[in-house]
What we know:
Elements: E1 14-19, H1 25-37, E2 41-43, H2 53-66, E3 69-74, H3 94-104, E4 109-114, H4 129-142, E5 153-158, H5 161-188, E6 208-210, H6 223-232, H7 252-267, E7 273-278, H8 286-298, H9 310-323, E8 326-331, H10 338-341, H11 345-353, H12 357-362, H13 375-386
Parallel strand pairs: 1-2, 1-3, 3-4, 4-5, 6-7, 7-8
Amino acid sequence: MAKDKNQAPRRYFGVMVSSTFTDLKEHRAALIKAIEGQGLKAVVMENDSAKPDVDVIDSSLQMVTDASAYIGVISHKYGQMPLCQKRNPGKLSITELEFNKAQQLQRPVLLFIMSEKHLGREADFESIAVKKKKLKAFRERAKQIQLGSPVHRVYATFDSLDDFNTKAIHSVAELRRYLDEAAQVSASALPQPTPAAPDPIPAPPVFYAEPRYIGSHKFTGRKAELDVLNDWVQAADPHPVLVFDAIGGSGKSMLTWEWATAHAPKVRQDWVGRFWYSFYEKGGIMSDFCQRALAYITGKPLEEFLKRKTPELSEQLIHHLQAKPWLIVLDGLERVLVHYHRIDAAELSEQVTNQPSDQIAQRDPCAAVRPEDDDYRKLTTLIAETWPKR
């Protein structure tokens, strides 16, 4: 194989998908769907098993080199170990070779590791002693991924296919944002000026989602819940806020996404705009929601709101929401609440709030875990009290 002449990623946003295959077919399909749903290109190699070992190594590593980012999924199988004394003296699996190449090239990395709780067939678990040893070492080494690196690094475990799908959707959405920002920085460093990238926030009444929801299957049924939403959204209904409260995994996100995108525009035609915001994505906080909502509503650049305090943003947002019929969907709002984080209070206090864990446990469960985000209650209360007759 010739030496790489250009180690930089190509301009298209190709994302390498690296994993064993036979035990992860459904996971790979879900991951590819999440990648393509964000406008990225899934770089996969499904048909190389019949190639000579050296060709498999060369083509696999070249795909990592050509891609803009790398996503690895590590299960309980180690996978194919192509034989080549020169290219693979350590007799590593293709997946581990690809992971090493991504690390060497400093590619943005998403890494998903299957937990011991994940169910599977007997054939989905490694049975060969030497491979079991290598797999254990690989899993432990992968867990040491440098999360503090200036290059995008995300590591997560998953307990089931549904758990994997949820985490993949939000991690890929975050990766897309990182690649967009990196591309803008790269473009700004060019000696000749380039046209400015279009604003990712559309102008109303075009629907705006941050990020887009990608379901694991086609939406069906739920007529009773859709009827509740349709009845609530009528202009004659006096209640401007509707809460859908149910246990995790019951399909709240899929239901509200289906309604907001397919039903709301038909039931009511006077929407000034429709905005979906998900708090499931890493880093989703009230200030980010307010900034993006105001940028969408006012048509002003997002940068204009980034340095403003959350209370100021809330006051402005309340003014706009009271004046005209905007549809705002907050998916996963429970993520900002003390009640949601009480189980992880000790860890949370160190990473987010800098508050002792006992203070977290004693706070009002309906309060926001970040004190500066408590204006979320002011938003809903003031809108409900002063909502104009429509």
